[in-house]
Structures are given as structure tokens and as C-alpha cells.
């Protein structure tokens, strides 16, 4: 029934993420800073959108709001056709757990904790029974090609391996949307290529919706469309004419 | 590990206070009980109730007639033994040796009631009590003071208040820590003590034994009725005697030692508060250091409640570890102290493992973690995931 409902939504071209006149203001009074103003955006299921822009353009703020990590000040954000402001804090936490996977520039792996345990972390907050955790975590680790590193600690891994472990953690709950905040920012070109290959596959093969922040055009061209921000506003929103595929990454 | 030291010290102190307090209580209670739980003491006198009353304390109120009447089955049916006691300080001399000591005038129930028998010689006989014989049983310390070691004592004579007493027995050494000690005492028939030593017609104390413990209350009532009748007393407030039971004495000792133990434990608990503040401090540092971790956990779906629970559990774990270490340390130290008291000081001290204190220690240390962990845990739970992730 729910599957049918979802299909019906797709037929009606209801976007998974839809924001209207979205604004974000930091601080108040004299010191108030307008980070985002009047952003209109729709991202469908299975889309791959790269968000680009110079630092201070508001791209990180936008990603945080889209990923329910931050509140917005004005406008509307509909996720799955429901106004995000209407979700209870517990529901927001549950949605982050079940629907989203985050990949950060700084990896954010727990130190002195094995890759396997790091990848398991989202499962701790899920409804999945504990006996399946090991299996799910190992599958996710295998999907990013880190099986041989599963029991290593982050300090024993290279930057690329750390980011792949972080991607495995983002995947372990089988989320709908992957948010990647400059995932190749701290990596050399070879490691960055491997990471982008994985993200590209997640979109093209597993049909995950991907929202990627980057300031590298090469990286952004893995996406289906590129949204450029400037001073908190959408400057342009274009489809990528010559989309890069597996192995096309270079720096 | 240093951070839990406060908790460790606090729990250790509480464990020791409780274990040693219980040991001391049991020691005293055992000694009271060794006199016999079926004994009742009758003491002459009255608490002054007003100025006009304060001069008449009735210390001479219990006389021979009272003893004779209490012995009657019709008055006190459950009485099995009665021993009048007169006592007072005296100076005993042997040749040119002098000893400051105490005379106890008793009858031959003395040995059974105080659970002591002469190590040499004998007790006196009923005839000797009846005929006011000048015989005496001396304590071990009196012997030391007045005689040479190895000297034959029995049959020797000592002088007290210009009377010559013949030694018929010597009591064994019981040590200075006994609740009641006859080490430095002269035991003689109460008739002898009354007539020749003190020149009085009354008793300082009566010790009465009943047939069973169950009949103590009834016997107390019978004694009171008999004595009031003899002394023409109608108002119990005007009694010129007290009746004390072992149960009362034990209850009083228990109350005092329990209050002392509680007070000392409360003092020890202060270090738990200090320890708790230490835990709060280290948890606040930990929350700040792990800001990124908190942000990440929230990003992957942790609710405020699960973050709160995580940090609360951590602080409870920390203090509980301190509690367990404290329990082990406290028990160990109590055991060592008990060993020293019983082996080297010569007390009849038994080591007690206070099960209650273990649960109390665990509970209290956990509670300290909970109470002092709440503030840091709330700080952690309140962090916004985005702010937390941005933290460098």
C-alpha cells in the first residue's frame, strides 16, 4: 500500500525535497547575518545535486538545513510532502537515522574505535535488532571495499580509507538521501577519485538521492545538476551536460 | 582514575565506619548478654523530680526484707535466683603492701550470673554467707599487687578496714576491656561486706534471674509490685528504686552505637559530595572534548534523550567503579583492623562483613554519579548537531 502510494507520488512528480522562499538568519539585532535568502529548490528521488559556491555563500548552511541538522528562519521546507517544522524532535532524530546518511569533510570517526564499531553506530539508534548489526555493518564495509580494515582503528587508516569508512557508516541504515559535505576536501586526488566513484555508484546503481557540497568543478561534474550559490541566493541551477562517470575523477 | 579518588575515599570511609561500628556494637552487646539475658537488676534510688526532692535520693531503700519478700513464690513466681550486691572502694593490705581495690559483697550465685569461676580455690558456701564469715576471693590484679608470683595464696590473710580476711579463691585474668571486670576486686559474702566493711544494712543492687526470657516482663511487674508494697508506694512516679532489664540495656547501647555510626557515616559522606563535584568537573570536560562525537551521534539519529542517557550512564559507571573499589578497600581495611584488635589488643572482636553497607555503598556511589552527572549530561544533550560538528 505504501509502496503504491510512493509510486503515485512519483507519478505526480512530487519532489522528495522541496524548499520555498527558504531563509536563514544567524544572530539577532545589530549582529544579525543573513546566510540564506529566498531559496527555492526541488530535489526528486534519485537525483544527484552538487551545490557549489565560494566560502560564505551559504552552501554548508543549506546542507545542514536540508539534513535536519539546523533550523531555518523563514520559508518552507517540505520533506516527503511534510513541513519539516511540524516534525517532533524525536521524529527528526528518527528521520536522520533512517532516511539520511552524512559524509563529512573531517570524516568524524570516533578515535580508538574500530571501523566496524564506527560503522555500527547509526544502528545503535535504530529499531534494528542487535543480532543483525554485525552483519549489516560488514556488508556496508564490504560495499566500500574496506573488509580488510574492518578491525583497524581510524588512526591506522589513510585519509581515503577513513572517508570510505565514513561512507560505510552513512550507508549502513540503507538511507534514501546521502549528504556529502566536501567529502574529497581533505583527500589527495587518487583517494578522492575512489571516494567519488563510490558516491557515483550509490546514485547510479543503488538509486540513492545524493546532495554533494564541493568547490571542485571536477567533483561537481559527477552530479546530474549543479546548483551554484552566491551570497545566500541561488545563482544558477543547471543540468550537467557532460556528466563524469566512474574513473573520470581528476584534480 | 584520580577523578574517582574522592568517591573511593568516601565509600571506603563509610564501609569502615559501618563495619567497625557494628563490630563495636556486637562486642558490647555480647558482653552484656554474657551476664545473661534472663537477668534483671534492681537499683535503689530515684531521679530527683524537684528541689524539695533533690536531697532524698533513697540510695538505702533496698533492705534485707525486700530480698526475703522477693524470694517468695507468692510474690515473684518466676524468680529462680536472687543475688544482693554491696560494693565500694577499699584499701587492702598484706604486710607492707597496699592495694586500692573494690569490694563486691555477693552470694554464691556470683559465679553463675557473671560466668566466672575461681582459677584457684573455691567459692564461698551458703553457711559462710549466713554466718558472715571473713573469707574473700581476690581478683588477678589484687594478687599481683599484694603477693609474689608463684606464692601460695590460698589460706593467706589480707587486712581490710581492720579486719582480717582469709583468701579462699583467686579469679582468672579477664583483661581490661571486659565490660565488667573483677580483676581488681575483692569478692566476699554480702553479709560480711555489710557488717564488717561498710557497716550498712541496705544493698547497692539486686540481680535477679528469671526462669525464661519470656517471663521477664511479668517478673519486672511482680518485682515492682512487691517493692512498692514493702515501701508503701502507690504512685509509680515516687518509686525509690529502678528495675533494669538486659533488653533495656542492650536497646540503649544499640541506640547509642547506631547513632554514633550514623553520625560518623554522615561525616564520611561529605567526602562523597567532594568526590561528586570532581566527577561533575571531569564530565563537563569530557562533554566539551567530545562535542564532535555528540554532534555526529545526533546526525546519525541519536535523540537528546539517548545522549543524556549515554553521559549519565558514563558518570554512574565512573562513580560505581569508585564505589566498588571503595567497598573492597573498606572491607579489607576493616578486616585488618579487626585482626589487629582481636590479635594484638586482645579484644573479643569479630570481623563483620556488612552486607547492608555494600548495597548502601553501591547505591550511594551510583546516586552520586546520577546527581552530579545530570548537569554535564544535560549540557551534552542540548548541543545542536550542527554546532557540535563545527567545533574544532
- Overall outline of chain A: globular
Write the element-wise H/E pattern of chain B from the N-terminal end onward.
HEHEEHEHEHEEEHEHEHHHHH
Biggest beta-sheet profile of chain B: 6 strands, mixed, barrel
Q: Would you tell me the structural class of the helices and strands of chain B? A: alpha+beta
Helix content of chain A: 25-40%
Instruction: Tell me the Rg of chain A in angstroms.
Output: 18 Å
Strand order of the largest sheet of chain B: 2-3-8-5-7-6
The residue fraction in helices of chain B comes out at 40-55%
Number of strands of chain B: 10
Overall pLDDT of chain A, averaged?
A: 89
Mean pLDDT over all positions of chain B? 86
| Distance between the first and last residues' Cα of chain A | 47 Å
Strand composition percent of chain A: 15-25%
Q: Strands across the major sheet of chain A, in which order? A: 6-7-8-3-9-10
Task: Explain what this protein looks like in three dimensions.
The complex is a heterodimer of chains A (251) and B (392). Chain A has 251 residues and is α/β, with parallel strands linked by helices. In chain A, 33% of the residues lie in helices and 25% in strands. Chain A is built from 8 helices and 10 strands. A 6-stranded mixed beta sheet of chain A has the order 6-7-8-3-9-10, sandwiched between helices. A 4-stranded antiparallel beta sheet of chain A has the order 2-1-4-5, with helices on one face. In chain A, helix 5 (133-143) crosses helix 6. Chain A starts with a helix and ends in a 12-residue tail after the last strand. The model of chain A is unreliable at 6-11 (pLDDT under 50). Chain B has a 6-stranded mixed β-barrel with strand order 2-3-8-5-7-6. With 392 residues, chain B is an alpha+beta fold. Chain B has helices at 5-34, 64-71, 110-114, 126-130, 140-146, 190-198, 216-230, 246-289, 291-299, 304-343, 355-382, 385-390, and strands spanning 39-44, 79-94, 97-106, 120-121, 135-138, 157-160, 163-170, 185-189, 205-210, 241-245. Chain B is elongated. In chain B, strand 6 (157-160) and strand 7 form a beta hairpin. The A-B interface holds A 64, 67, 69-70, 89-90, 93-94, 96-98, 100, 102, 104, 106, 108, 110, 121-122, 124-126, 169, 173 and B 292-293, 295-304, 306, 384-386, 389.
